[in-house]
Amino acid sequence: MLSKFKHQKHKQHLTKLPKIALLAEKINTLASPEEYRHTLTKLIENAKQRIYIVALYLEQDDAGKDILSSIYKTKETYPQLDIAIFVDWHRAQRGRIGEQAVNTNADWYCEVAEQYPDVDIPIYGVPVNTREALGVLHLKGCIIDNTLIYSGASINDVYLHKHDKYRYDRYQLIDNEILADTLVNYINNNLRASEAVKRLNIKNRPKSAKIKKDIRKFRKHLKQTDYQFTANANEEQLALTPLVGVGKESILTETIHHLISSTEHKLIICTPYFNLPSLITRRISRLLLDGKQVEIIVGDKKANDFYIPEDKPFRLIGIVPYFYEIYLRRFVKKLQKYIDNGQLIIRLWKHEDHTYHLKGLWVDDNWHLITGNNLNSRAMLFDLENAILIHDPANKLQNQKQSELKNIRHHTTKLTNFQELATLQTYPEKVRKVIRRIHRVRIDKLINRIL
Asked: Does the pTM exceed 0.85?
């Protein structure tokens, strides 16, 4: 069992975190991607002070065009607005996986800028590492005036449910001036001010190879930087702590580990991609051994954004959901006895041909982590991640929490035995061949780290 001393140490880490006071009526949870799209558009159109959009990507499709057009029109109407957009440098300058880099998102940003010669809206590319596979901009949160609209969603048709398909995520609105200022100051002081961060909506942007030294220096700086703010809340108040960082020693990664280990009764985890780091799986096993309850809500392989139906042409990226299922099957097989006694609950999310992208942690009734962190090795080692940790000692947000979890669980089925998950022998032939080849050359662990 986890000793009382160690358990107290984990709780002390959370207690010592600086916190910003929050009013319960100033946080609102949205229920759907469609509601998120309408809310984001409305906030942009009614902005009076600033618009900071931060996302992995802003895509050249109908939803992306609508959002970018709305931002330009708002700037035309209110020229004094402070507006800036930040996306991943590498992602913006390539095509979708398996497609050529022709008319990329960055090229589209340039075309739009030319359509508005009198309106200057900088769109910055943030290179978290020299290669996309080794780290991307995974910060979440758009700041509009004093409202943070926090979601793991990027901006495109499927994330915003513009047409038939949607990708389900989480969507929180937090109205808090200190929080909004904190995030904007971090962006301006650490991203916008860096020599490595370049504008994408200009035609003479440099090649990645030309700024390699700046990128390495930038990454080193990011590892040493956290959000800066003055705490104004005590342990009895509803409060939040913004967290940011890169790598396993960041304050965010440390807090995730402490949060999980501080569980007294029940831990709930949402993640779209089941490849939890070994340290987290060990902590979960320890919680179960100590009699705690753990619920994990994960996407079915067919609800994964990399899943390719068998009647579609096979591409190598299509093996990814099968790897996640293999990892999940091993995990469940090892801990089957806890599923049998009701301590471990595994829910698989699947709704028609829609996809699942939720992340987050709920610990007991008083801690709640809103994040874009996938809780996997890639997130913990490579990507620039952030989160909002909410402390709710008086359960003022209990109704919102239960309502959101009810929505999340709606399209899930509870796993009762590891044998309900498919095996390698039942996978499509091309998938089997690739996975067996990978097993033979023993690069499974490397793949697990970068998925």
From this structure: yes
